[in-house]
Amino acid sequence: MSFSGTVASDFMKLGKIPEDRKSSLVNFAAVDFETIKTSLVKYINAVYPEDFNNFYESELGIMLVELISYMGAVTSFKADALANECFIRTVKNRNNLAKLLQLVGVTLKGPGSASARAKLTWKDSVSPTHAQVSSITIPNTARTTTVTSPQDGAPVSYTLYKLDSNDAIENIKDNTDSLVLYGATDSDNGGTGELSSIYSKLALVEGAFAIEQGSFGGTEFIKSISLGQGPVIEKSVRVYLESVDAAAADATGAYLQVDKLFSASGATDKVFEVVYDADYNATVIFGDGALSRNPPQNGTYTITYRVGGGSRGNLVKEAINVIVTAQDGDANNTAWRLENMTVMAGGTNAETEREARRFGPYTFKSQDRLVTLEDYIAFGNRFYNSLGSTGKVTAITREGFSSANIIDLFVLEKATDIQLQKASPTYKKDLLNSIDEKKMLTDQVVVNDGLVRTLDLTITLRLDKEYKELEESIKRKVSTQILSFFAVDNMEFDKDFLKVELERKMFQLSEVRFATIDNIPDIVAVDHNEIIQLNNFSLDILYL
Question: 0.70 cut: is pTM over it?
Answer without folding.
Answer: no
